[in-house]
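Form P-L/3: holo structure prediction, ligand coenzyme A.
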Amino acid sequence: MSVSIRPAHGSDLPYLYEICLKTGFSGADAEALFDDPYMIGQYYAAPYLFFEPEFCFVAEEDSRPRGYILCASDTARFIPWFEGEWLPLLRKRYAEDHPARSDFERQILATIRRPLEPDPFAEAYPAHLHIDLLPVLQGKGCGRALVDTLVAALRARGVPGLHLGVGAANVNAIAFYRKLGFAALKEEDWGLVMGMRL
Ligand SMILES: CC(C)(COP(=O)(O)OP(=O)(O)OC[C@H]1O[C@@H](n2cnc3c(N)ncnc32)[C@H](O)[C@@H]1OP(=O)(O)O)[C@@H](O)C(=O)NCCC(=O)NCCS
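OUTPUT (holo model):
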């Protein structure tokens, strides 16, 4: 089956939510862990399509998006937008008494409620990304193709660096990023910040 990479479109939004949920638990399916199946995508996927769609791409197979790379090209500009425009409604929706089916859902609830801090990597590596592929597309070169596509778009705009956060348990993703040339920038208690100069 042939896979094509194309710029993301507004109509891809339901697929972004689906892919985010089905890969959300350190790369594994998180569907059974959530009372609200949209919660994780509301934080890690959807906002990027609204903030800067030109740096969002999907991998499509059989006319259906099955993977994405989502990016904010200037994290220092993204953070105040996310905090000011996107998160207030989510914080109302997910108030203190919101039900949670698992510790992981409670962790995402806490992440949504926590005020954002300035990103120390935003100066040297202004862009940050999220990439997820459904299992059917994994291990076939699509991840590399999505990163290459994003890197070309960022270079064309003169963005000098790109970074990301990856959970310590996601050893496959860490190996993938290393293979593509990302270096570890900082070890956190939750995982690694990795970056690449462009
Ligand atoms: C992690 C992920 C994006 C990688 O994409 P992918 O399409 O599976 O990876 P590719 O097939 O493009 O691999 C690219 C290169 O990385 C290498 N690689 C990928 N996974 C690897 C692993 N676990 N160990 C060692 N090398 C690995 C490949 O061998 C390949 O090398 P090559 O191009 O020199 O042959 C994808 O598997 C995925 O979405 N996983 C689930 C969600 C997830 O974990 N997202 C990241 C959250 S931080």
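COMMENT: The pocket of coenzyme A is lined by residues 23, 27, 131-133, 138-144, 166, 170, 172-173, 175-176, 179 (CB under 6 Å).
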